[in-house]
């Protein structure tokens, strides 16, 4: 995927030169250096810009990309965006011929901005062409850097190995999200998970009968309208037997959300193959955690179903007994994500984890409130929220905390059952209502819920994630978990 070579090379055709206080932080000699100095003297750059110049050098055309940083960098996403931007300009055939001058100055010991820039390049390099007759040749991204010791120490073999494991997982999640719903059924998702995951993981797949027999009736009910039957995938990772602490992750896996009997209209239904993004991201997290061999224990719970319309589909008015024992009156079959998550969360709670983190494309209301750049985040625990938030900020992934407002809880009380799956005040606080529904199933487990309805799948070109499935949050959650390793 990516390889860094610390030497000067004749292979280089693309020079990426971020402007820093010292000018740029690289010894480049000869004609090229003159050309760069020339450009710097004669041109003006606006912050956040990437400009491409071509010069004739070494008997061929070489490209210089001048990257000017904004005066004030308000988020680390800036470095990701710049990396992505440059990548978009580079000919795919030449991705093994890039030279990168670091963003940090000569005396720096840490190169995390340069690392973010490289990550942005990797996001920009991804493309989805599984279903094209003519597929791009997937070349390794080879980046040359100068051979100063501090740089070599920072981007050591371990670090590069970890970046590659991370992006292999992120690309898998993006592929899964982009896959069409006729191909990626609940069953198929489990098959792919089984082949993609390390053998050092324990995998249990519940089929529709086991789901029903074990009492996960909400998951069963949401999935029963489709001939692509529901599944429940549980992945157990034990990275260290010395610790008792357990992390639980849950991801919403609706392989297609038609809305069910409350059918979605044209305009809302087209992107609903991406309603399994939470599941894809959590699977990716399991993959990278196990491949990196993190010293901790975590279990990943992935409920999978297709929410379809039809004779055997569930209806508004149905009352279902959840895995927790609480009964739920269905008032809208399009509020299906919270139903399958409720059972998965209850199942996880039974194992007494120290923390539960779920990811779900849960509500259109979250998209209305925060758009495609920011995910909604809810938590019943301030300390854990703050800690997790710091990793999202460091990694340049935007989240905003929304309240689990207790006065709205009663809006989910049903006349005929313990709970109803939507609030009757339909136009109010939709993302909060989704989160408050889930809250009924977490008991007192510290819990974080990410509503990624806006950030999971990009309809337009996003400056970091590009188009389609994004893999939002995998990086941040992975690095949060890594910080939890026992030494
Ligand atoms: N999968 C949708 C939410 C969604 C909307 C994800 C747009 C991505 C983009 C979810 O299942 C849903 O349909 N939610 C309903 C809830 C409502 C019926 C209370 C919604 O948001 O309209
Ligand atoms: Mg729905
Ligand atoms: Zn949905």
UniProtKB/TrEMBL annotation:
Q: Which reaction does it catalyse?
A: Release of an N-terminal amino acid, Xaa-|-Yaa-, in which Xaa is preferably Leu, but may be other amino acids including Pro although not Arg or Lys, and Yaa may be Pro. Amino acid amides and methyl esters are also readily hydrolyzed, but rates on arylamides are exceedingly low; Release of an N-terminal amino acid, preferentially leucine, but not glutamic or aspartic acids
> Binding positions for Mn(2+) 2?
252, 257, 275, 336
Q: Its Gene Ontology molecular function terms?
A: manganese ion binding; metalloaminopeptidase activity
Q: Record's Pfam families? A: Peptidase_M17, Peptidase_M17_N
The residues responsible for catalysis, as annotated, are 264, 338
Could you say which cofactors this protein requires? Mn(2+)
Among the entry's GO cellular component annotations, what is one? cytoplasm
**Keywords from the UniProt entry:** Aminopeptidase, Cytoplasm, Hydrolase, Manganese, Metal-binding, Protease
Residues holding Mn(2+) 1: 257, 334, 336
Free-text remark on how the cofactor is bound: Binds 2 manganese ions per subunit.
GO terms classed as biological process: proteolysis
Query: What EC designation does it have?
Result: 3.4.11.1, 3.4.11.10
Record localization: Cytoplasm
Which residue numbers delimit the Cytosol aminopeptidase domain?
A: 332-339
Q: What superkingdom heads the lineage?
A: Bacteria
| PANTHER family cross-referenced by the UniProt entry | CYTOSOL AMINOPEPTIDASE, LEUCINE AMINOPEPTIDASE-RELATED
The family annotation for this protein states:
Belongs to the peptidase M17 family.
What the protein does comes down to:
Presumably involved in the processing and regular turnover of intracellular proteins. Catalyzes the removal of unsubstituted N-terminal amino acids from various peptides.
Which named protein is this?
Probable cytosol aminopeptidase
